Amino acid sequence: MIHLDAQQVQSALNFPALIKALKDAFCSDITTPMRHHHDMANPNASRETTLLLMPAWQAGEKAGVKMVTVAPDNAQVNLPAIQGIYLLMDLHTGTPEFMMDAPTLTSNRTAAASALAASFLAREDASRLFMVGTGALSSKLIRAHHAVRPITHVTVWGRSKAKAQAVIDQVQDLNLTFEIIDSIEQGVKNADIISVATLSQTPLIKGEWLTEGQHVDLVGSYRPDMREADDDVVKRCEIFVDHRPGATKETGDIKEPLDNGIISIDDLKADLFELSNGTHSGRDNDQQITLFKSVGHALEDLAAAMLVAQYYKK
Fold it and tell me: Which pTM does this prediction carry?
């Protein structure tokens, strides 16, 4: 079995190839049982540590399982919030072939899923990206959106300006115009694409700030008690998700408005399966405000892991 660290996984992935691999996977026959989601009591922290187990397999090809923990307080001890491994196996024999760094795989496939959604939902001329959050995902989301839309200007908001600058430093090679701002409202009002990747439990984006033609990309809320956007956002937007069962159960940005009658299940226009296979075309016009909510899907992990494996089997 081959062990791949974070740098080796990163070296095997680029966003144009990964976005295509995800689109192909959403049109394929990959089997993905509902992921196991366990909140583990953590008396020494402000919140529970979450354990996620995410299996997927493609008949006659590969099987994989991701095992990760999410510990929201890890920033206080200079550790990433998400840690874990991905195991890729030959399905025919059951032989483990690769064990790879799961956080790197996760951050890349998550950003690629957002970009895949944006390729259907963001205006074709979208050039101004507002990045809310400064975690490990932020630089990946900037690169991924840049791969599908003509981004020229990126604004970054974070609770720490030093961390915001660190995000910018990681993507300086893109030769874009960068700006750090103090006001989320200002950033929203001046953006074509608003990408939000935080661990916030209270809404950061308000619907009253949105204007025609924008695309909202919500990435961070992975639990029912987490929100990145308020009720006015979901009421004003055409809503799309990566996976309907996960989005309606696991994220507060969708589950809470559904439970409170703010939106109905019919307001979820399509998921990435339907967008990728052409069942739904995505954005209809330049005036719509679209929203994509990502919760993560084991299919994405398997597609990314198989791409990494192909790179190292050349």
Answer: 0.92
